Amino acid sequence: MIKLLLIDADLVHARELSALLAHRGIVIQHVLKCTDGAAALRQSLPQHDLVVVDLSERSHPWLTFLRKLRQALRNPTAGCGPLFLCISGLQWSVDFQILIERSGARYAFEE
Amino acid sequence: MHLKNRFGRVLETVDLLAAELRSLRSQGPCFMILHRFHNPGSDCTPGEEAAAVLLHHHGREYRVPLPPTRLLLFDFLARRSRIPLSGSQIVTAMSVDPFAMRHGLNATSSAQAPPKIQRSCLKIYVQRIRLALKQCFDEAGLKINPHDVLASQTTVSNRIGYRLIATCEWIHEDTIDRVYYLRLKSDA
Lengths: 111, 188
Known about the structure:
Chain A is α/β, with parallel strands linked by helices. Chain A is built from 4 helices and 5 strands. Chain A has helices at residues 11-23, 34-43, 62-71, 94-102, and strands at 3-7, 27-31, 50-54, 83-88, 106-109. Chain A has a 5-stranded parallel sheet with strand order 2-1-3-4-5, sandwiched between helices. In chain A, helix 1 (11-23) links the parallel strand 1 (3-7) and strand 2. In chain A, helix 2 runs parallel beside helix 3 (62-71). In chain B, the strands form 2 sheets. Chain B has a 4-stranded mixed sheet. Chain B has a 3-stranded antiparallel sheet with strand order 4-6-5. In chain B, a hairpin with a 5-residue loop joins strand 5 and strand 6 (160-164). The longest helix of chain B has 20 residues, at 8-27. The chains are: A alpha/beta (111), B alpha+beta (188). Chain A binds chain B through residues 2, 4, 16-17, 19-21, 24, 26, 49-50, 52, 70, 73, 76-85, 87, 101-106, 108-111, and chain B through 1, 3-18, 20-21, 24-25, 57-58, 140-145, 148.
C-alpha cells in the first residue's frame, strides 16, 4: 500500500485530489504548509512513499521548500525514501520545471 | 472540467512514481557500467577497463565518483551479485578473475600490473564505495541508503558477506559511438 503525503494549501483542491488517489488504494496524509510537511516527514514511521507538493502559488520559494523537505528526511535507517512530485494548476516556465526535475522531483501540470 | 481529466496527468505521474518506487525497492537502483578499450566485434573480454559507473534515474545519468580500483571492485561485485561474498572470497576470486587480472591491458603494451585488492583494505574500499554511492544518490535527489545497495549480509557465524543489490547493465565505448552514429544517420 502506498503512503502519500500531500502538501496543498488549497483545501478544496486537496480534497478533490485525495478522493481520486484514495480510489487507487493510496493512503493520504494531507498538510497545508511545507513546515507541517517537513514535520510530518520527520515523524512518520513507516515513512511516506510519495510526497506531492502543490505549487499553485507563485510567491513561494518552492525550491527552498523542496530542499527543506529533503533535509527533513535524514533518516539513515530508511531503505528507499519517498519520491517527490510537484503539481500545479499554473503553468510554470520551462526553466523552473528543469530546476524542479534537477532537484530529483517530477513535475506534472494539471490540465 | 471533469476531475479525472483535470488531474489526469497528475494521476499518471503518481502511477509512474509508484512503479518506479516498487522497482527501486525490489531490484535496487539501475547502474550502467562503462567498459573501454573494447575489441570491436568481440563480446565483453578481459583486457578492457571498467571506466565509469553511471546511475540512471529520471532519464538522466549521474556518475558514481569512484577511482579505478573501486570501479574494478564495483564491476566485480556487479558480476557476482547473486550471492554475498566474504572479504577473503572477494580477494581470492579477484586474484584469479581474468577480467580483474588483465584490467585495462588492451590499452597498454607494457606489462603494467592492474590494481590489486588487499584483504586488509577491502573494508575501507566498501566504505568508500558506499560514500560515493551516497554522493551520487544525493545528486540525483534519491533517498536511498547505500548500505541497502552495497549490503553487508550476515551468516550464522560472524562472517559478513558483501552483495550489490542493483540492476546493472554493461556498455562498451565503441557500442556507444555506434549508437550515436546510427542516431545521427537516422536524424540526417
